[in-house]
Specification:
CATH topology of the largest domain: Rossmann fold
Keywords: Cell membrane, Lipoprotein, Membrane, Signal
Shape: globular
InterPro entries: BMP_lipoprotein, Peripla_BP_I, PnrA-like
Membrane topology: Lipid-anchor
Order of helices and strands: HEHEHEHEEHEHEHEHEEHEEH
Family: Belongs to the BMP lipoprotein family.
CATH class of the largest domain: Alpha Beta
Main location: membrane
CATH architecture of the largest domain: 3-Layer(aba) Sandwich
Length: about 325
């Protein structure tokens, strides 16, 4: 009888432990890890991820960890192994480069939920987040086209798949049918020397407003524009602090807020796998502070257009964001 009772107690404890493990894997937030390809001190994209991590720490009273320069599969998996020892069960890979490796690691590390950006999440414990950049680009293009004196504006983008680039072009054409728009690509988020060469090419074509749609180089491009007495539309962060006489406004992606949204959903067991999109209506995209150079009546017009877009999903041209 004692042996039987002992067996039942062990079985009950085993079920209890199993239940706790399943609960943790399916939604109970323990600790949180962050991987960034460059640094958290870039003042733009990486910094936003780090700020989001700190907000999660504050709001959920969990430990958080981050690792920089995570750019190859071997270092990424090693980081995951270390995070496992730290009782991490929610991991953010701060970029599109993490989607594929996260899909590969997902089955091997089922206790984690892997979150990346702008990729294709194919496993049950992977999620990819995407900002709907077309709409913010559209409004940025309208402002650039309204301000130009040469009717020539430019974009320095990292990659041709960025939806904000097409949005910028369409918004500029909507605002000014006579506009000329030149688009240059760096094929790299952070290559400042190459971006400055692309800027020199744009300036040689008499462009006077430029949209530097990249992470590690946009500050350098804006500083060069300031030196030349030209103008910019900021990208990712509100970059008005770089000079209101240069930065007309910014198209802002609030990655730090999105981190909070994701952690809240995960802690409630409501974070789905797959690819998720977020826009102005979710409070994670906005326009930045306007320069005094942008007429107040046009500021009001843009704000009204943004409000209408949030309420109806329709841009000023009557179309939905692509």
């Amino acid at each position: 009888m004692k042996k039987k009772l002992h067996f039942l107690i062990l079985a009950f404890l085993a079920l209890g432990i199993s239940g706790c493990m399943n609960g943790n894997a399916s939604g109970e937030l323990e600790n949180v890890g962050l991987l960034v390809p460059e640094t958290v001190n870039d003042g733009v994209w990486g910094t936003k991820g780090y700020k989001g991590l700190l907000k999660i720490q504050s709001n959920h009273d969990v430990d958080v960890f981050y690792k920089e320069s995570m750019i190859n599969d071997t270092s990424i998996e090693q980081a995951i192994k270390e995070y496992k020892k730290d009782d991490v069960n929610l991991v953010f890979g701060h970029g599109s480069e993490y989607s594929e490796v996260f899909n590969h690691l997902a089955e091997k590390y089922p206790e984690f939920h892997f979150v990346s950006f702008n990729g294709d999440a194919s496993e049950k414990n992977t999620t990819s987040l995407k900002f709907k950049g077309y709409s913010m680009g559209f409004f940025g293009g309208m402002i650039a086209a309204r301000h130009t004196k040469t009717d020539k504006i430019g974009v320095i983008a990292a990659f041709d798949w960025q939806p904000e680039v097409k949005g910028f072009v369409d918004g500029a054409k909507y605002q000014n049918k006579d506009i000329e728009i030149f688009v240059e690509y760096t094929r790299d988020w952070n290559d400042k020397p190459k971006a400055l060469k692309r800027l020199a090419s744009l300036v040689s074509k008499d462009t006077d407003v430029v949209y530097p749609a990249g992470d590690g180089y946009n500050v350098g491009v804006i500083e060069e524009l300031k030196e030349r007495g030209l103008f910019a539309i900021g990208y990712v962060s509100d970059q008005s602090d770089l000079g209101e006489s240069t930065v007309l406004t910014s198209t802002v992606q609030h990655a730090d807020k999105l981190y909070e949204v994701v952690a809240d959903k995960f802690s409630k067991g409501e974070l789905p796998s797959g690819n998720l999109e977020f826009d102005f209506k979710d409070g994670v995209i906005s326009m930045g502070k306007f320069s005094p150079l942008v007429p107040e009546d046009f500021q009001t017009t843009i704000n009204q257009h943004v409000k209408h877009y949030i309420e109806t999903g329709k841009l000023p041209n009557g179309k939905e964001a692509k």
